[in-house]
Specification:
By secondary structure, the chain is mainly α. Helices cover about 65% and strands about 0% of the residues. The chain is built from seven helices and no strands. α5 crosses α7. The longest helix has 29 residues. The chain is globular, with a radius of gyration of 21 Å.
């Protein structure tokens, strides 16, 4: 049985009910699409600026588990989406904070983006207000969960900063 006629749930794709089977667009006609710039070097540089040296260790461990996936993240996200014109990095980070808070269940990524936001100049008050402003739209539990992640990250950052200052003294 070909994948086009395989019953649902058997690993193939059932296209028997597709209403436009004979009038498919030839994808080779899509030659006039604007090419998406992907800049691996720019992605690596931006991630290093946002995340600092810890990103290398994190991505190296992930590459052991899912070879090539970290490179895809760096290239397509930080070297692609983040490089697009139209939003300043600050605005993009506010959107990321809002999206991750609304999504929920992604606390490690939200904590990373709280740190990134602080590194590029957002204040604790601004980050807090992003999450407070989400409450009527995403629900109080998700806004509170985001605030808990932010508070823990602020505390961790304060402890790290104090330790660094003591070591420098």
């Amino acid at each position: 049985m070909s994948p086009a006629t395989a019953p649902a749930g058997t690993g193939g794709t059932d296209l028997t009910n597709c209403t436009n089977r004979t009038n498919r667009t030839d994808l080779t006609e899509l030659t006039n699409l604007t090419e998406a710039p992907l800049d691996r070097a720019a992605g690596r540089a931006l991630l290093a600026d946002l995340a600092g040296p810890g990103a290398v260790a994190t991505l190296g461990g992930l590459d052991t588990l899912a070879p090539g996936f970290p490179d895809w993240i760096v290239t397509s996200l930080f070297g692609g989406v983040y490089q697009r014109p139209g939003l300043a990095l600050r605005d993009r980070q506010i959107a990321n904070l809002a999206a991750l808070t609304a999504l929920g269940g992604v606390e490690p990524q939200l904590a990373d983006h709280v740190r990134y936001s602080r590194r590029i100049g957002l204040t604790e008050v601004e980050i807090t207000e992003v999450m407070v402003g989400l409450a009527p739209y995403v629900g109080l539990p998700k806004a509170l969960a985001g605030l808990r992640v932010a508070a823990a990250t602020f505390a961790e950052t304060a402890t790290t900063d104090a330790t660094t200052a003591e070591a420098a003294a």
